[in-house]
Automatic annotation (TrEMBL):
This is HTH cro/C1-type domain-containing protein. PROSITE patterns: HTH_CROC1 (PS50943). Signal peptide: none annotated. It comes from Aliivibrio sifiae. Residues 9-71 form the HTH cro/C1-type domain. One of its GO terms (molecular function) is DNA binding. CDD domains: HTH_XRE. SUPFAM superfamilies: lambda repressor-like DNA-binding domains. InterPro entries: Cro/C1-type_HTH, Lambda_DNA-bd_dom_sf.
Length: 304
């Protein structure tokens, strides 16, 4: 059951035994979003005279490791144009010869050890679909996870290869050609981390929606993930990401058509750095958070 932001602040100060000045000091010190916040404004928030936008509310909740769902009203209407973006992302057909599966299997792997065929398939995806050569990169030595989705014939229908980095690393290290020099870490090793989705693809609607829901869930329960980096190779993903504050930090090769279009030019892929709080505070996204496990269960995906 959602509570008002005013009530949340009152509860937070009581639980942590903070004065308003203590709380203000913590906010201004730990998040640049609040560097201009003053005591008068904070007091007005607590007395419900004014209310900050949801991004700021979630930023405060995540800073203090609070459950963000208590601040989200799932009944807030989603603008029609935003619903359309989500529908286009979900409905895109990549393999018209495949039927929707009654059940898909999800396997979560920490490394590619003993998965030579999968390793070969993912490298082929990188080379032939994204146009990058990763065969000389030893992903088996990287602290990365891979989620794979397979159908009832055990055919690979989707994957998501990802890891975590420090938040202050040089953005150039996120380039494909620099992946060998990019240090991946355990997400519990640092107070704040970035989630780096190196590559992801789904030929079926079920697994595509599941990957989006899993991303949203990961961000909503891991408050130390401040941003995520994602490599996008079709337009619907960029449209989805564009609901949040983001920076395009890298682009692929120019192509004549298809791929991702930015300012009238098509690229084989683009890479964006996306603010987690901004993403979660979009009505299109936060409308999915409260019942996210039910949404995932409805997709009939078994976890192996």
């Amino acid at each position: 059951m959602p509570i008002t932001f005013s009530t949340y602040l009152q509860n937070l100060r009581e639980e942590m035994d903070l004065t308003q000045q203590n709380l203000l000091d913590l906010l201004t010190k730990n998040n640049s979003l609040f560097k201009k916040l003053d005591l008068t404004t904070l007091s007005r928030w607590e007395r419900a005279i004014t209310i900050p936008n949801l991004k700021k509310q979630l930023a405060i909740a995540r800073l203090f490791n609070s459950d963000i769902t208590q601040l989200i009203n799932p009944n807030t209407p989603v603008p029609t144009v935003k619903k359309k973006i989500l529908e286009q992302f979900h409905e895109r057909v990549f393999n018209p010869y495949s039927e929707n599966q009654s059940t898909l299997a999800l396997t979560k792997l920490k490394t590619f050890n003993n998965e030579d065929q999968l390793y070969h398939n993912i490298n082929n995806f990188h080379e032939h679909f994204l146009g990058i050569n990763t065969k000389n990169i030893d992903f088996k030595q990287k602290t990365m996870d891979i989620n794979i989705f397979t159908d009832k014939e055990n055919n690979l229908v989707a994957h998501c290869l990802f890891g975590y980095t420090k938040t202050n690393i040089n953005k150039d290290l996120y380039k494909f050609e620099e992946i060998e020099n990019c240090d991946f870490i355990n997400k519990s090793d640092e107070k704040t981390v970035n989630l780096y989705v190196f590559s992801a693809f789904s030929s079926l609607k079920q697994s595509r929606m599941a990957m989006l829901l899993m991303l949203i869930k990961k961000l909503s329960i891991n408050n130390n993930i401040k941003s995520f980096i994602i490599n996008m190779h079709y337009q619907e993903v960029l449209n989805l990401i564009s609901v949040a504050e983001h920076n395009i930090i890298n682009k692929g090769q120019r192509i004549n058509s298809g791929g991702v279009k930015i300012f009238g030019k098509n690229y084989s892929f683009v890479q964006a750095l996306v603010n987690a709080e901004s993403f979660l505070s979009s009505p299109m996204i936060y409308s999915l958070i409260e019942n996210i496990d039910e949404h995932l269960n409805s997709l009939a995906i078994s976890v192996e």
